[in-house]
Amino acid sequence: MASRPIFRTGKTRIDKVAGFTLIEMMAVLVIISLMTGVVVLNMPREKPMIEQQGSFMAKQFSVAAQTSIISGTPQAFGLSQDAYFFYTFDEGEWKVVSETEWAGDLEVNFKKDEISIDIPKEKAVPIVVFEPMGLSTVFSLSLEDTDQTITFSSNGDGKVILGDEL
Description:
The protein is of the alpha+beta class. Helix content is 26%, strand content 34%. It has helices at residues 22-41, 49-71; strands at residues 6-9, 12-15, 75-79, 83-90, 93-101, 107-112, 115-117, 128-130, 139-144, 149-154, 161-162.
């Protein structure tokens, strides 16, 4: 067994191998820094408000189309300059299922059968209908902010597509 060097200073003994060297401490700091960098670079970035609104609307369109087929009751979409609405047809009239205000300063353009429709200021009415047999109104809806444009469209088959994938 090899003996470790011991220094004696007066009455106390100092063990030379106790503690960490500067190089060991630096190596640990480098490893921690690299791991932190990997975590920070892989964190999800916050989406712009228009993308959040578009993603949420896409889900709502999908739910409306599926609900109309499953329940056998027509569902609809309508909009005003301040908000958009989803409706269900119940007891002979359209009833609002959800109302969502437009996020930020969006410019909204709506075309039904390739004809631009003026968006009402306050009172929205159903303008896109999802039928229980899987059909829907042909439409195109675009949302624009200063940086980006998001487009929803349907060719009447009950599917609403986000983007230009028709």
